[in-house]
Amino acid sequence: MTDLSLGRHVNEAETNPDINPNAVIGAEILIEQLYKYYGDVKVLEDLDLHIQAGEFIAIVGRSGCGKSTLLRLIADLEQQSYGEIKFKSARHLREGITSDDIRVMFQDPRLLPWRSVEHNVQLGLPKTEHANASSMLEKVGLKEKAALWPTQLSGGQRQRTALARALSHKPRILLLDEPLGALDALTRLDMQNLIEKLWREQGFTAILVTHDVSEAVQLADRIILLDKGHISAQFQVNLPRPRQKNLAFTELEQQVLNAVLAT
Ligand SMILES: Nc1ncnc2c1ncn2[C@@H]1O[C@H](COP(=O)(O)OP(=O)(O)O)[C@@H](O)[C@H]1O
Ligand SMILES: [Mg+2]
To answer: Does residue 3 carry a pLDDT above 50?
Structure first.
């Protein structure tokens, strides 16, 4: 495995002064000897990955290399063929991690068209949590749109609704499978900033699958390159946040892009 570390990784959840001490702190994820087959097709092979609590990971790699499969296994939406995925709570917080603590956001926002924006965000939550869900809608800048139907929103607003819905469950882990892939460039930048802001505030562990290397450098603490079912390279991103597209940024971006192209 190539480790092109640019320096020591610092766990954001432990050092970030912006994190609200009452916020849910992310879970640590330990993946050991993970294999996934679909019939004879080997998709993931002997994959080991240790993700720190509150870390922001980006996963890049060519189409079909197993990124979504890995995310589905972490989300418990599918079973691995062999190997283990373990979760650990950080410090004094709740011990057991259940699938309720993990939320996934996809490219398609998957909103219910017959429910208002606000009801979509409150979906599946007990009544006592509805006010919290509504305040999440405010955090993503959609308070004024609460009573509208999803069809009355733009693509970016729908994705913000999906983000508010995911975060209203106070997840310990947020999995993002190319959530910004269908958005225009400017909306994408806004969404990246919003995801980074809420991640910093809430401290959940984030895993973002993206085909956009620039997005990976913009958001991640660490970038993982998947190839032929395992991790072929890792890049530590120790650029200060919020990140500027300066020389160090574009150099790292080029380095990651070259590695992806070489797979
Ligand atoms: N349910 C499934 N049944 C059979 N093959 C699958 C299934 N899901 C994914 N695959 C195969 O696994 C490989 C990895 O898919 P995926 O994880 O979706 O890739 P990525 O997200 O990196 O583009 C592909 O070759 C795909 O065809
Ligand atoms: Mg995919």
So the answer is: no
